[in-house]
Amino acid sequence: MNIIEFSDKYKDEAACVADLKQRRDLQVKECPHCGCTEFYWKGDKAMYECKKCHYRMSFKKAASWKTATCL
Ligand SMILES: [Zn+2]
């Protein structure tokens, strides 16, 4: 992989994450651990963190995301 391919890939993944986050925000957000519905968005890790119990949830692993073609 050369630097151009790398930057192209990064750009695509970043765009993908941004798109997924936008769609994820429209889904029902409920902590599977405590049921809290408020989350912090951890942009650097592409994860949500529950405001109540600090449970971390990656939207990439959520069942509702299986149809995303870029994952
Ligand atoms: Zn929680």
Model description:
The chain is of the alpha+beta class and 71 residues long. The chain has one domain. The chain is built from one helix and three strands. It has a three-stranded antiparallel β-sheet, with no helix packed on it. The longest helix has 22 residues. It is elongated and about 45 Å long. It binds zinc ion. The site of zinc ion has 8 residues, from loops.
Order of helices and strands: HEEE
Largest sheet: 3 strands, antiparallel
Helix and strand composition category: alpha+beta
Counting DSSP E segments of at least 2 residues, the number of strands comes to 3
Distance between the amino and carboxyl termini: 19 Å
What structural keywords apply?
alpha+beta, 31% helix, binds zinc ion, 3-stranded antiparallel β-sheet, 71 residues, disordered C terminus
Question: What's the short story on this structure?
Answer:
It contains 1 helix and 3 strands. The chain is of the alpha+beta class. The chain has one domain (3-61).
